[in-house]
Amino acid sequence: MNEKSVYQTVLLTPEQILKFWSTLEKPISDALKYSVNELSSFDVFKLAIDGKIHIWATLDNLSNIAVITTTRFLHYKSKKVMQMLTMTTLGSSIPDMFDQHEKFEEFAKVNSCSSIQAWGRKGWLRRLNPLRSKSGNKYKLQYYVFNMEI
What we know:
Elements: E1 8-11, H1 14-32, H2 41-49, E2 54-59, E3 65-75, E4 80-89, H3 98-110, E5 115-118, H4 124-128
Helix pairs in contact: 1-2
């Protein structure tokens, strides 16, 4: 972890999600606008309370929420992965995601995931490109997901 970092990422409990939902809801809803409406912010709320979606808060040195990230586990026949659903800042800009990503990687490993996936807009490439796992692997762009309503 970067020793100079002023950020700390924490996984919110269901009780904390209830307590801070009025702060969490709008940024999550705004981030979901870039999706194809698979989930609403209310869906995220219900799934997070049930422990099926994880809501993370990245706090600055004053304990203000700087970034909100949502993740979930995807179960495939031969593997389990952690998917980053949304990531959004709250009026601030963090210089990198290294500390935050290290926390995600640890959580994914503890929960028997073989990888982390990010299904997001093209702008994520800039954030994910400099990251490396503890074993030296980096995110590889495998495909874009497009959707067309008919």
